């Protein structure tokens, strides 16, 4: 007789059509046949009573536990010799409590345990997932290696201090490629020093750091470090063999206490020399596969290139700084005029700027002050700065030119001598024996006038004329102003008023406000205090300024 099929709770909501199905009484099961069927399953199946004793298991469970069914039935699973039963029982209990499968290392492989608890005890199914686990671990290691290379590239690519960046490299390669790491750099005179270390075991980090401080003084040339530095090729060795080469008891004891089994030393290659080595200390049982070795070689190559690049940049910066210092000289003395100059380099050591100033006597006795900024922060900018400074003097002396004519001549010369170079400049000329100021401005921040009463005013247009290097035929205007005695004129580069997070107008307003507060102070003190207040100790760009006071004759 057909009866309607009743839907299970939680099934599809709404009315369900009645489907007539024949109802039959199932035949009685054959326990032996069922056991034989379960025996053929690749997964291990176990049943435990409430006391944890085995009441049933299939053939796969026999193989997993390493004992025959007859010997296992009635025994407590956790007491089965070998430790596998204890691991399975713990994983099964956790799986039953959480309702989720638990992966466990047991019997030399990885197994996924599922479990269900009832009044009769605990039932477990155990599936071998070793192959799946191995594939996943390989994928995870490949991802870790790729991530490491990206992190190393990010750490080293923009490094301004190669030694500091390499010191942090040890923390990147541990533990992806090694258990412990020491990084060594070699200067151009061949002197080696360890600059960083790290260990995966927190208890051995300080020991490795102490060993790194003394090892280079005690390791012989025949050690892996010495061989790698001499040959420029990777060298591997057993730590036991390295210990046999060491004569210093203190450092030998430290290396022994690190409990490493082997060491791999890789040179850090540059274009013409080895700039350092990477020492990897591997614990017992750890080996580097082909993919690991390829990765660590790539890391070493990146590090070598970074050190080489930073070294070249450092030498270029030192050259540019020397050139810049040679050009930023003290001003001469002018009768009746006080001139003060100041220059502050950027806080970021690698930014050698093109900011410059000059003050010189015109052939007819007038005082000429100039300030400029070549676009760029490198040796080329510093070299262009020096040439422009010389050109200004040459044009002013040969032509007897005024400020506007000086800028025109400078623009024409740049078109042939420095095509592509861009610069801003302001030239001011104070007539001898008088108080008339003439000035011209090529895209530079406008000069600032502080009156004897302390009023602060920008001179000329806010932007001036077109910057130099854009159009040699551009118009160059000239302004003129009679200065009352006691007036101060300030010429400065944009680093004085530009700040991250502030607009140029806000920076200029801040400059004018501080100048008004400092008005009346001695000119050297005014300039020093102005820099302190506006830069707050951390200039983000080079800053140059020239201050001129009419009615004085000191210079500083």
From TrEMBL:
The keyword Magnesium applies. InterPro entries: Bact_Sigma-Reg, GAF, GAF-like_dom_sf, PAS, PAS-like_dom_sf, PAS_4, PPM-type-like_dom_sf, PPM-type_phosphatase-like_dom. It catalyses: O-phospho-L-seryl-[protein] + H2O = L-seryl-[protein] + phosphate. Keywords: ATP-binding, Hydrolase, Kinase, Magnesium, Manganese, Metal-binding, Nucleotide-binding, Phosphoprotein, Protein phosphatase, Transferase. It is an enzyme of class 3 (hydrolase). SUPFAM superfamilies: GAF domain-like, PP2C-like, PYP-like sensor domain (PAS domain). Its EC number is 3.1.3.16. The keyword Plastid does not apply. Residues 30-75 form the PAS domain. It holds the Pfam family SpoIIE. One of its GO terms (molecular function) is protein serine/threonine phosphatase activity. Residues 1-27 are annotated as: Disordered. Primarily acts as an independent SigF regulator that is sensitive to the osmosensory signal, mediating the cross talk of PknD with the SigF regulon. Possesses both phosphatase and kinase activities. The kinase domain functions as a classic anti-sigma factor-like kinase to phosphorylate the anti-anti-sigma factor domain at the canonical regulatory site, and the phosphatase domain antagonizes this activity. This is protein-serine/threonine phosphatase. It comes from Geodermatophilus obscurus.
């Amino acid at each position: 007789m057909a009866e309607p099929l009743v839907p299970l709770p939680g099934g599809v909501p709404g009315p369900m059509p009645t489907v007539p199905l024949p109802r039959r009484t199932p035949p009685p099961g054959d326990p032996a046949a069922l056991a034989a069927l379960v025996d053929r399953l690749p997964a291990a199946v176990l049943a435990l009573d409430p006391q944890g004793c085995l009441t049933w298991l299939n053939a796969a469970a026999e193989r997993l536990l390493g004992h025959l069914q007859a010997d296992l039935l009635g025994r407590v699973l956790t007491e089965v010799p070998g430790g596998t039963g204890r691991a399975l029982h713990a994983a099964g209990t956790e799986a039953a409590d959480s309702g989720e499968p638990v992966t466990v290392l047991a019997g030399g492989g990885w197994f996924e345990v599922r479990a269900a608890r009832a009044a009769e005890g605990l039932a477990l199914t155990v599936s071998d997932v070793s192959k799946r686990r191995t594939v996943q671990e390989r994928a995870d290691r490949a991802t870790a290696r790729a991530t490491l290379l990206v992190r190393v590239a990010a750490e080293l690519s923009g490094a301004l201090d190669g030694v500091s960046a390499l010191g942090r490299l040890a923390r990147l390669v541990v533990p992806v490629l090694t258990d412990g790491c020491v990084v060594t750099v070699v200067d151009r005179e061949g002197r080696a020093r360890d600059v960083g270390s790290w260990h995966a075991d927190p208890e051995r980090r300080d020991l490795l750091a102490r060993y790194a401080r003394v090892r280079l003084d005690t390791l012989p040339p025949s050690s892996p470090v010495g061989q790698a530095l001499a040959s420029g090729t990777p060298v591997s060795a057993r730590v036991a063999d390295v210990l046999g080469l060491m004569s210093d008891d203190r450092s030998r004891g430290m290396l022994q206490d690190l409990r490493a089994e082997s060491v791999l030393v890789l040179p850090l290659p540059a274009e013409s020399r080895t700039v350092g080595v990477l020492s990897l200390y591997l614990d017992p049982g750890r080996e580097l596969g082909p993919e690991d070795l390829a990765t660590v070689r790539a890391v070493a190559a990146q590090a070598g290139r970074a050190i080489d690049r930073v070294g070249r940049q450092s030498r270029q910066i030192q050259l540019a700084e020397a050139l810049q210092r040679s050009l930023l000289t003290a001003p001469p003395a002018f009768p009746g005029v006080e001139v003060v100059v100041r220059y502050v380099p950027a806080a970021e050591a690698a930014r050698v700027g093109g900011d410059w100033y000059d003050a010189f006597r015109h052939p007819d006795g007038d005082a000429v002050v100039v300030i400029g900024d070549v676009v760029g922060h490198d040796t080329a900018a510093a070299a262009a700065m020096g040439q422009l400074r010389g050109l200004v003097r040459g044009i002013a002396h040969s032509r007897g030119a005024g400020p506007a004519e000086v800028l025109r001549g400078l623009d024409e010369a740049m078109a042939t001598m420095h095509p592509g170079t861009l610069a801003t400049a302001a030239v001011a000329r104070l007539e001898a024996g008088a108080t008339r100021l003439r000035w011209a401005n090529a895209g530079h921040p406008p000069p600032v006038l502080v009156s004897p009463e302390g009023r602060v005013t920008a001179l000329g247009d806010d932007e001036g004329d077109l910057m130099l290097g854009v159009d040699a035929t551009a118009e160059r205007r000239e302004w003129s102003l009679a200065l009352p005695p006691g007036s101060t004129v300030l010429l400065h580069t944009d680093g004085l008023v530009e700040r991250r997070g502030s607009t140029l107008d806000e920076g200029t307003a801040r400059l004018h406000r501080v100048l008004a507060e400092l008005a009346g102070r001695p000119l050297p003190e005014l300039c020093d205090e102005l820099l302190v207040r506006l830069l707050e100790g951390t200039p983000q760009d080079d800053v140059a300024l020239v201050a001129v006071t009419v009615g004085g004759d000191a210079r500083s």
